[in-house]
Structure formats: structure tokens, C-alpha cells
């Protein structure tokens, strides 16, 4: 057995190479299950040989060679499996020749194919995020299960279901053509953003950071797509506040309670540059507009001096791009900061009949906040209790309980 520190070093290298390796194997053999199995076999071989012989100059190439040999061995032992894969390979070859190896002798970067496969619209929404974390982020099934707060067995079923769907529907491992890309890219971006928001809401820094890492990869793979810049900008500008989101007691803090000197200024500057890029050269996209809103928050020295008129104007643009009661809710909160809580509450009450806002705890929490600011404490307390019943994560529930207690004291 290799020493624990040597094993950790090897595993760190493997996690970095895994997405490249898996994508290349899928391209070669056309089967996600086989690719995952032989990739795991290759890392086990690396854990045996590398601590003794040293890490090879090109770890990815070593892993690919080992995995490919193991795949061939498996196919020789299972002729039926080999015959099925032969058919899949014929279909895969119709999408074009395999890319040449990377100039440095490493693996060609074929992860873009996996991004679009994992986020294919034929898969259930909850399965897309799970498969993306499993295949592209390199998380184990138990790690993905912990990320979404479900039992490992439940997550394993989701991942198996997604793979079966890919196989049965013969979803191709390929990048959509130029005519398809505008329709398919938003689905990929949404998967990454849902992973980020899941981590951010639950104060799961590891999950949020994994989403940022994946967004950086996608940005490198699609450098000319402005909405990939917009998504990465939005994530960075939001994640930059992370260190100040949690108080000394471990509880979440509201924006107005945060010590802005603890915000990550280099991350904010990077996000601002990307936001400008996302908004340059044509009509804005939803992520670019949201990034611009986040940048205005990050640039302000405090909440009162934030450019609320500009934020409301940007929400008007966003509402035109993506008509949604959730966007309307956020716009109402910005109007409340610009024109006062009564104006914002009137807009929120006008959204009361929206089906998507029923059971959505931020709506109840926003109403509670405006009622509190108007001095209507019993109504605010009732709204906070409603939000508490609807909140899905413990950090959010703890924050709402604190606000509810404060309202009770004020009343």
C-alpha cells in the first residue's frame, strides 16, 4: 500500500486530470460506464506504481494508455459488450474524427462534449447537475450525494438513471453544431449555476468553488461565447463576498451586516472585467446582466449608497430578457431600496398569485423584511414563520429564526 501522503498526492493529480481522461475515453469507446470503470482502474494502478517509480512526466498520457489497455482487456472478455460498443463507435464517428493529442503529449481537451452530454435536455433536471459533478468535477457518488443532501443510494440511482437515459436515447457525445449551440448552451450554463447556488445557499464553499472551477473550464473551452463570461463573472462577484457572509457564531449575515473589507477584491476585479466583456459586442444576455447587478453591489461602500436606480434599470432589462416571477421579486426588493418599503411591498403583493412563488421561501422572507421596515411587526413575524417553514437549508433557517426573534423583540 502506498503511504497516505503519497496517495493523496496521486489522487490530487488524478482529480485534475480526470475530466480530460474521462472525456477522451468516452470519445474513444462511446460508453460512459466503461470509461468510468477503466479510469478508476487506471488510477488504482497509478496508486500502486507512482509512489514507487515516481509520477511520470505526462500523468494524463500515462493514465490514458493504462485505461485504454484495460478497456481493451474488458472488451476481449465480453464479446456482447464489445459488439454493442462497436455500434456506438460507428455512430460516434459520424460526428467527426477524434481530435489530435495535445501538443505537450497530454490528453486532448474533449470536456466540452461531456458538458453538453451531461446537460442534455433529455435528462431530468436533477440528474444533469449530479452527472456533471460526477463526470466533470470528479466527485465520487457519496460526495455528490453530500452536496445535494440526499442519501448515497438515492444519488447512485440518479446517476445510473442518467447513464441509462444517455444509452437508451443514444445521446451523442459531441459538441452541438453552430446552428444548435444557441439553444443548447443555456442548459449547460443553468446546470453550472444551479450547482453554484446550491452551494451558496447552504454555505457549502466546496460546492460553490467546484462550480466556479467548472465555469472557468467552460470559459476556456468557449472563449467567444459572451454568456460563459457572464456566468463566470456572476459567480465570482457573488463568491467574492463569501468570507464576510458568516458571523462569529457561524450564522449567515445579511448584505447590510457584512464587513465589506473582507470581500475578495481581486476576485471582484476579475468579475468586473468579465462582466464588461459579457456586455460588450451585442445584445446582453441574462447572466451578463445579473453580473452587472452583482458588480454594482460589490462596488458600493455600503447598502444605502448602492446605485439602486441603476440596479432597478438592470432588472427591467433582465425582466424583458427572462420574464420570471423570481426576477420580478428581486426587482421589487430593489425598488423598495430606491423608493421605500411601501413601494416594494405593493409590487410583492401584486406577485402573490404567481404559482412559482408559492413555496418559495425568499418571497415570504422579502415580504417579512418590508413589513418589518414598515413597523408592521405581527405581520412580519407571520411572514418570517412562513419563510421558516419553507426554507430548505439549515443556514437559511438559522438566519430566518434570528430575524424572527428580532421582530418579536421589536413588537
TrEMBL record:
Domain RNA polymerase sigma-70 region: 14-79
Domain DUF6596: 184-278
Keyword Transcription recorded: yes
Alphabetically ordered keywords of this record: Sigma factor, Transcription, Transcription regulation
Record-annotated RNA polymerase sigma factor 70 region 4 type domain positions: 118-163
Biological source species: Actinomadura sediminis
Listed name of the protein: RNA polymerase sigma factor
A Pfam family that the UniProt record links to this protein: Sigma70_r2
Organism lineage: Bacteria, Bacillati, Actinomycetota, Actinomycetes, Streptosporangiales
UniProt key word Transcription regulation: yes
Family statement: Belongs to the sigma-70 factor family. ECF subfamily.
PANTHER family according to UniProt: BLL6612 PROTEIN, BLL6612 PROTEIN-RELATED
Record InterPro entries: DUF6596, RNA_pol_sigma70_r2, RNA_pol_sigma70_r4_t2, RNA_pol_sigma_r2, RNA_pol_sigma_r3/r4-like, WH-like_DNA-bd_sf
Amino acid at each position: 500500500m502506498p503511504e497516505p501522503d503519497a496517495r493523496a498526492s496521486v489522487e490530487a493529480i488524478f482529480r485534475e486530470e480526470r475530466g480530460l481522461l474521462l472525456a477522451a475515453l468516452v470519445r474513444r469507446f462511446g460508453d460512459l460506464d466503461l470509461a468510468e470503470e477503466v479510469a478508476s482502474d487506471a488510477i488504482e494502478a497509478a496508486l500502486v506504481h507512482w509512489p514507487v517509480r515516481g509520477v511520470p512526466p505526462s500523468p494524463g498520457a500515462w493514465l490514458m494508455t493504462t485505461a485504454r489497455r484495460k478497456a481493451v482487456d474488458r472488451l476481449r472478455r465480453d464479446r456482447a459488450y464489445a459488439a454493442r460498443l462497436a455500434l456506438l463507435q460507428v455512430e460516434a464517428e459520424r460526428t467527426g474524427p477524434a481530435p489530435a493529442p495535445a501538443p505537450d503529449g497530454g490528453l486532448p481537451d474533449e470536456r466540452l462534449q461531456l458538458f453538453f452530454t451531461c446537460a442534455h435536455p433529455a435528462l431530468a433536471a436533477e440528474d444533469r447537475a449530479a452527472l456533471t459533478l460526477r463526470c466533470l468535477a470528479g466527485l465520487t457518488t457519496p460526495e455528490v450525494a453530500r452536496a445535494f443532501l440526499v442519501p448515497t443510494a438515492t444519488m447512485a440511482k440518479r446517476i445510473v438513471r442518467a447513464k441509462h437515459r444517455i444509452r437508451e436515447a443514444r445521446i451523442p457525445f459531441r459538441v452541438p453544431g453552430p446552428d444548435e449551440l444557441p439553444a443548447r448552451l443555456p442548459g449547460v450554463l443553468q446546470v453550472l449555476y444551479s450547482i453554484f447556488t446550491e452551494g451558496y445557499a447552504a454555505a457549502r464553499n466546496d460546492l460553490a468553488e467546484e462550480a466556479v472551477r467548472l465555469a472557468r473550464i467552460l470559459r476556456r473551452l468557449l472563449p467567444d461565447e459572451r454568456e460563459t463570461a457572464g456566468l463566470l463573472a456572476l459567480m465570482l462577484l457573488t463568491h467574492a463576498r463569501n468570507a464576510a457572509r458568516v458571523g462569529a457564531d457561524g450564522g449567515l449575515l445579511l448584505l447590510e451586516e457584512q464587513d465589506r473589507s473582507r470581500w475578495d477584491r481581486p476576485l471582484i476585479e476579475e468579475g468586473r472585467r468579465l462582466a464588461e466583456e459579457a456586455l460588450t459586442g451585442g445584445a446582453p444576455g441574462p447572466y451578463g446582466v445579473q453580473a452587472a447587478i452583482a458588480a454594482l453591489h460589490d462596488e458600493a461602500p455600503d447598502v444605502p449608497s448602492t446605485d439602486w436606480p441603476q440596479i432597478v434599470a438592470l432588472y427591467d432589462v433582465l425582466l424583458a430578457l427572462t420574464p420570471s416571477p423570481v426576477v420580478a421579486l428581486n426587482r421589487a426588493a430593489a425598488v423598495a431600496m430606491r423608493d421605500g418599503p411601501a413601494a416594494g411591498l405593493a409590487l410583492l403583493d401584486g406577485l402573490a398569485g404567481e404559482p412559482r412563488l408559492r413555496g418559495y421561501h425568499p418571497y415570504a422572507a422579502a415580504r417579512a423584511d418590508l413589513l418589518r421596515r414598515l413597523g408592521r411587526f405581527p405581520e412580519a413575524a407571520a411572514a418570517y414563520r412562513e419563510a421558516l417553514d419553507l426554507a430548505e437549508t439549515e443556514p437559511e433557517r438559522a438566519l430566518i429564526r434570528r430575524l424572527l426573534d428580532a421582530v418579536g423583540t421589536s413588537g
